[in-house]
Amino acid sequence: PPFAHPPFSPRNLPHPDTPPSRRRPPPLPLPLDLHPRRILLLASSRGFAKVPAAAMAARLAQLRTKAAQAAEFASKHGGAYYKEAMEKNKQYVVQPPTVEKCQELSKQLFYTRLASLPGRYEAFWKELDGVKQIWKNRKEIKVEDLGIATLFGVELYAWFCVGEIAGRGFTLTGYKV
């Protein structure tokens, strides 16, 4: 049978300074065509399984059942959902709905966005000029405007923190924010 990885690759070799008593034997090659029960047996024989093999097999059977139920639900109700969504949004469908038309629309979207860059560039510089003007007249800024700007800055920082937390898998540890 084909093997998933060579049994003696440089990645599997121990560090030269590791004493022989602490070296682990190289991993056995895994055939790619394993049946799930054989995977459970191999995993438990290699010490990977923290759960008894019978419990893992039961959990695997449960997951297969749930996947079959989800596939059955999608096959029964997916067509109705598709028809409803298409009926609701038929004004956005370009006729004829072909691959060539999709490619043409994709190209139109790209060049339309490219054509909008000069207008966005001008808007950016107008905004920047407004900020410069406010900075020149900073002595005349009202406390209310200063408070609004401060709250806006705090909100930006809060959204940055939320993004950082989401980026590391919704854990609060690992980054110093």
TrEMBL record:
Residues 1-30 are annotated as: Disordered. It comes from the Eukaryota. GO terms for biological process: proton motive force-driven ATP synthesis. One of its GO terms (cellular component) is mitochondrial membrane. It is found in: Mitochondrion membrane. Its main location: mitochondrion. The keyword Ribosomal protein does not apply. Keywords: ATP synthesis, CF(0), Hydrogen ion transport, Ion transport, Membrane, Mitochondrion, Transport. Belongs to the ATPase g subunit family. This is Uncharacterized protein. It comes from Brachypodium distachyon.
